[in-house]
Amino acid sequence: MILNSPCMFQVTQPCDAMIRLCLWHGDPINCSRIFYPSLTDEGMCCSFNKVRNEFIFKNPKDTSDLNSTLHYPSVDWTLENDFPEGAPLDSIPWRPWGAGRHLGLSVVLDANIEEYYCSSEASYGFKLLLQNPVETPKLAAFGELISPGRESLIVIKPIINKSSPNIASSEPELRQCLFNKERTLRFYRHYTQRNCILECEANFTLSFCQCVMYFMPKDRYTRICGKKDTDCADKAKCKSDRHTNEQGP
């Protein structure tokens, strides 16, 4: 079953209404050309620098693109393999030219507070999530709260742990990590820890509740959980999280 919910569009602030001004590398850029809606565990969010579904999922036609128009080309990028040879300079994911706020992304946001009715948090504002471009956003667990009416500076200090190909001959249990080609997921094209966890959560929810949550990976024949399935889906998430914490992904 492919998600096609007019209700979700009607109750969600559109990206072009939320994001009023954008600067990239210090230059103005049309926000509607670089942000587009994507599904998360807290509804729809506005994504920047996320690759097309065809480079995330094995079954992109079974995954709703929310009727988005993507204005820039994407490439088959992964953290392990980087950009493919000959990738255009304007292909997603974009790369900043250097460090500093003038070379990053700056946005002006409109919270539209007068339209708030029911929020996932006891406050107004936004949630920000920094993620791998080939992963599904999970705002509920990892989102950072951003207050309206203030300037927020987000500093990214990446810690890169890159494995040498020379250790590939060692057993995964010994090196405590996996190369991308060593595990195959059913729905995702590339193995990452978060993709693995979300796919495991989807599989467990399906077996436990006979449905999956709308934001989870699925095929076109899988039933999407409705309101009456909420309690079951919440129990499935708790059981899945407990198993992941005890056993690892």
Automatic annotation (TrEMBL):
It is a multi-pass membrane protein. One of its GO terms (molecular function) is ligand-gated sodium channel activity. GO terms for cellular component: plasma membrane. Belongs to the amiloride-sensitive sodium channel (TC 1.A.6) family. Gene3D superfamilies: Acid-sensing ion channels like domains. The keyword Membrane applies. It is found in: Membrane. The keyword Transport applies. InterPro entries: ENaC. This is Pickpocket protein 28. Pfam families: ASC. Keywords: Ion channel, Ion transport, Membrane, Sodium, Sodium channel, Sodium transport, Transmembrane, Transmembrane helix, Transport. Its main location: membrane.
